[in-house]
């Protein structure tokens, strides 16, 4: 007859070796602190007052692109390409459509609307930062 205590111990030991829900970030884009405030009432940020507006910001590893998705939602993307972020010229620029980020070094393309990969060789979307929008103060807080 099976000893219930031994069965319990065997089950618990098995659970300890199961993978957890957290995955290690395998990207080789360094983690840096980002804590920026964008004041939409200031003239230098006027382009962000319209849906679809975007602009580059200083910060992150190779810079940040902030994009206005809707009246109340912003997105902030690291400008380091996820394909080979260590390459000197691997930096995301926005093309003439104003909705596609392109790394001219490797040819990868990303949608600024939803961060989907439009063209490889990149296999991961752009690194994102949090955007908290305060309507009352017309301020966007970009942070990690």
Q: What is the secondary structure topology, with strand pairs?
A:
Layout: H1 4-16, E1 35-39, E2 54-57, E3 64-70, E4 73-78, E5 92-94, E6 100-103, E7 109-111, E8 117-119, E9 128-134, E10 139-143
Antiparallel strand pairs: 1-10, 2-3, 3-4, 4-9, 5-6, 6-7, 7-8, 9-10
From the structure above, extract its key features.
single chain, 144 residues, mainly beta, Rieske Iron-sulfur Protein, 6-stranded antiparallel sheet, 4-stranded antiparallel sheet, 1 helix, 10 strands, globular
What does the model show?
The chain is mainly beta. The chain has a single domain (28-143), classed as Rieske Iron-sulfur Protein (3-layer Sandwich). It has one helix at residues 4-16, and strands at residues 35-39, 54-57, 64-70, 73-78, 92-94, 100-103, 109-111, 117-119, 128-134, 139-143. The chain has a 6-stranded antiparallel β-sheet with strand order 1-10-9-4-3-2, with no helix packed on it. A 4-stranded antiparallel β-sheet has the order 5-6-7-8, with no helix packed on it. It is globular and about 40 Å long.
